Amino acid sequence: MVRRGRAWILFCGVVLTGLLVAAFAALGEDCSVCETEFRTCTIVAAGKKATADGSVITAQSADCGLCDFTFHLIPARDHPEGATRKIYLLDQYSTYPDANWTRPPRYEKIFSGIEIPEVPHTYAYIHGIFGHLNEKQLQINESTIGGRRELANTPGLFTISELTMIAMERCSTAREAVQLMGALAEKYGYNGRIDAAECLAVADKDEVWIFEIYGVGPLWSPESGEPGAIWAARRVPDDEVAVVPNHSIIGVIDFEDKENFMYSSNVLEFAVKKGWYDPTSGKPFNFSDIYDPRYHADGTPITPANSYGFYARIWRALDLLAPSLQLSPDLPLHEYPFSVKPDKKLTLQDIFAIYRDHYEGTFLDMTKGVAAGPFESPNRYPRLSFRVEGIPYRFARPLESYHCDYVSVCVSRSWLPDPIGGVLWLGLGESDTTCFIPIYVGVNELPKSITIGNHWQFDRESARWAFDYVTYHTLPFYSLTMKYVKQAQEYWENLLILETQMVDQIALRLYNEDPAKARQYLTDYSKSAVDRVVKAWWELGDNLLVYFNHGYIYSEPGKRGAVSWPEWWLKLIIEKDKMKPWP
Length: 583
What we know:
Elements: H1 6-27, H2 31-34, E1 42-46, E2 56-62, E3 72-74, E4 77-78, E5 84-88, E6 111-117, E7 121-122, E8 125-127, E9 131-134, E10 139-144, H3 160-170, H4 174-188, E11 198-203, E12 208-214, E13 230-236, E14 241-244, E15 261-263, H5 267-274, H6 287-291, H7 312-321, H8 348-354, E16 385-388, E17 391-394, E18 406-412, H9 418-421, E19 423-428, E20 437-440, H10 463-474, H11 478-513, H12 515-547, E21 552-553, E22 561-562, H13 567-577
Antiparallel strand pairs: 1-2, 1-14, 2-18, 3-8, 4-7, 5-6, 8-9, 10-11, 11-12, 12-13, 13-15, 16-17, 18-19, 19-20, 21-22
Helix pairs in contact: 3-4, 10-12, 11-12
């Protein structure tokens, strides 16, 4: 059954397009400038032979600042013959009032007007602003990427958020998910009005794929008979790690290698038709260069160094993973390797550390300089870019972001039953002040505190606000307050990692006796982990408020110290304010 509401969709698309065009125009034409504030999530995706324990890991920082930060468990369901599924124009930027994507009546306002045939059975899964982990250990994480402006504003049916949801519902492997999302987007159109070009790390317990998708422009319609999306996917070698920092990384497609590449039916034809690729040139078909060219207005290739630090994340992350490669920050973006073999196999702690990096010790160190202030803060509020006398400037964009809504670290392990093997390590709020907490995919329900809350109302029942509470109290004296935060992170994250190793074994024994008992045990443990950490973070925030109250230090009972400004900062004050010595 198909019901169409094209007029409404068109109207919303035109309005949103106008707003985005105006915003981009205000920021200028330089690609390294215009995308900074709009595309900020980072993917890290590791194959099973690149990790210390053989697990497959993908991660994402949801660097939005206004996205829905709540998480929900959608149960598995059986559907009668002839059932249909409504498709909603879900976007990744809104906070929905009920924070529940089980499609209550109020969601009719974002109903596309179209229904597609339902499948007999849909899997259970955990979602945030995307579908992240399902009961078959399928995992997805996202990073918005750029692309040619001619490809934007496609009036398609599927947003990237909805594509991830339907993959979670219907797929058990990464290959299936890539093929399903690609096929649906080609048939019904990828909605480039709501979401720009996108990249997904799609993984299961055996392999990892990088999937990138683009619209085909505003003139497309289902009646055209043409595919409504351009996409390609490339497999990450088992012993390597890929990083996606808001630009295409797929690179050259080997059309003969069906084992490691998948792509849309129009991927080559469309580029030739547009004059972006000449098949007689002898040049390889570089998907990234063709669909996501990265050049400044003067034709200079964008590099981490000349992008004012915004795209330095690709250089920094790969250098953290494989410093032996000695990658240069002066390389054009598309000359970096698709993936690298890490110098040492990765642990969860290594992944957490990547998302807490501020270029420490490099030429872009965000904790140094006048902008960092006297207490070495890497945060640059309220924006990374600014103008002085009409001239644009920008700060570097680190892997850690002050407007992060959450970091999702998904783990899949082939040697364990699916309910035990799949774990979401969730870090709510800013990654440098959060604590990563394990939630097993086999739970019967999620801890209530992670299912509630929004950006506009303080709520002590919401887990996210506990982490924001700590973040807020680190800001005045960052280098001093973060010592306490790091101590808490080290204690709790190491403890939880050790605990989950024991939980795995206990749950496995229970699972062999009765899977239902194992699920209840995993539910109880996940709730306990969340509750304990959230309680600890509220206490940490309270302590920071007391310890550094009014600029003094009250950390030791009966004693009061004082915060001291560094001498270099005092000299700047003397110079800037033209202070005279005090007699």
